[in-house]
Write a structure and sequence with these properties.
Blueprint: E1 2-6, H1 11-22, E2 26-31, E3 46-49, H2 55-61, E4 67-70, H3 77-82, H4 84-105, E5 109-115, H5 138-157, E6 160-166, E7 168-170, H6 183-192, E8 197-200, E9 206-207, E10 209-211, H7 212-224, E11 231-235, E12 241-242, H8 243-254, E13 260-263, H9 278-284, H10 292-302, H11 304-309
Parallel strand pairs: 1-2, 1-4, 2-3, 4-5, 5-6, 6-11, 7-10, 8-13
Antiparallel strand pairs: 9-12
Helix pairs in contact: 1-7, 2-4, 4-5, 6-8, 8-10
Bound molecules: nicotinamide-adenine-dinucleotide.
Length: 317
């Protein structure tokens, strides 16, 4: 297969690109490097810097491509609250641009990296694909709009479409920006540095943490599986974990127990999340293979940024 990965220099995109070249596919990546870093990409990946809304650039990159993995997006939930228009421009506008360029060139299939945040608040768990989406933040609204655009334009222009609702992915290579960092690498880094952890709410809110390699397996399967056209498919671990349990697992992996401070003035966002994986098992043959303790151990072992801060504790200075 010849594929294009938009956002392919990011956390999930890099892992996907490297897996696909290992499997013998020809991989092109388009990324504007607003958050990505091409240094971790295999030299066998053809990297192009550019904006996903640049349709002429997409036309040339899509020549002879059979499948697009559309991952390019702004990815911070809290940032999207502050910059809703930017999130709409990139996450919705970028998706429409990709679909129009695919129509023009005649590409067969797109796999959209959607998000479990589209579920928002639901009356019951686990979260399954037939539930009515109830997005609570602009990031989630934009992902839901992207799903609708992909399915609608795909049906109109005879492009096969599949959207994966990815839960909280973590693993080596995930960015740790100074503000609004994803919870797993942020808490791990803080713990290793001997700092205190600040938890919003009481820490009993739950998430479904899924290791990057499992997400990549689902993305690859979605590009090849029959019978996935116009399907929404959850990708998670199927395990519901409280933030307090995550902190315990991080403490065990790091070999030190952090001080935990609870900030009751802030909420911890959507209260409970865990994926129903029956559809992923049925349509993709998907089965998560990495437990949270195993994933944290691998993150610790493989991520140089985490290793750097993993020095013996010398107390507070
Ligand atoms: P990431 O920020 O590491 O990757 C996104 C990439 O898109 C970055 O490399 C960034 O430079 C690039 N990008 C942003 N705007 C662009 C633009 N205008 N043109 C070209 N490239 C652009 O994030 P990630 O965690 O790897 O997420 C990848 C995809 O998966 C995103 O669509 C995200 O919404 C989705 N997703 C991720 C998770 C998760 O837990 N990581 C969960 C649900 C969904």
């Amino acid at each position: 297969m010849r594929v294009l990965i938009t956002g392919g220099a990011g956390f999930l995109g890099t892992a996907l690109a490297n897996r696909l070249v290992e499997l013998g596919h020809h991989v092109r990546v388009l990324d504007d490097l607003s958050a990505g870093d091409p240094a971790r990409l295999s030299p066998r990946v053809l990297f192009t810097r550019g904006d996903v809304r640049d349709v002429p650039k997409l036309w040339s990159l899509l020549q002879s491509v059979q499948c697009v993995f559309h991952l390019a997006a702004r990815v911070s939930v809290p940032e999207s609250v502050l910059y809703a228009r930017d999130y709409n421009d990139v996450n919705v506008g970028g998706t429409v641009a990709v679909m129009e360029a695919m129509r023009d060139v005649g590409v067969a299939r797109v796999v959209l990296a959607s998000s479990a945040t589209v579920y928002g608040v639901q009356a019951s768990l686990p979260l399954h694909e037939a539930m009515r989406p109830n997005p609570q933040v602009p990031y989630a609204v934009a992902k839901l709009a992207a799903e609708h655009y992909v399915f609608t334009l795909g049906a109109l222009h005879h492009i096969e479409t599949v959207a994966l609702r990815i839960f909280n992915a973590y693993g080596p290579g995930q960015r740790i920006p100074p503000v609004h960092a994803p919870v797993v690498p942020q808490l791990l880094k803080q713990t290793l540095a001997g700092g205190s952890l600040v938890v919003f709410g009481n820490g009993q809110q739950t998430r479904d943490f899924v290791y990057v390699d499992d997400v990549v397996s689902a993305l690859v399967a979605a590009s090849q599986a029959p019978d996935v056209n116009r399907q929404i498919i959850n990708v998670g671990s199927g395990q519901e974990t409280t933030i307090n349990e995550l902190i315990q697992a991080i403490a065990a992996a790091a070999g030190r127990a952090p001080e935990v401070l609870y900030n009751d003035h802030e909420t911890g966002g959507v209260v409970h999340m865990v994926a129903d994986l029956h559809k992923a098992q049925r349509l993709l043959g998907y089965a998560p293979s990495v437990t949270l303790p195993q994933g944290l151990a691998q993150l610790l072992e493989k991520d140089p940024r985490v290793q750097l801060s993993h020095t013996p504790h010398r107390g507070l200075s």
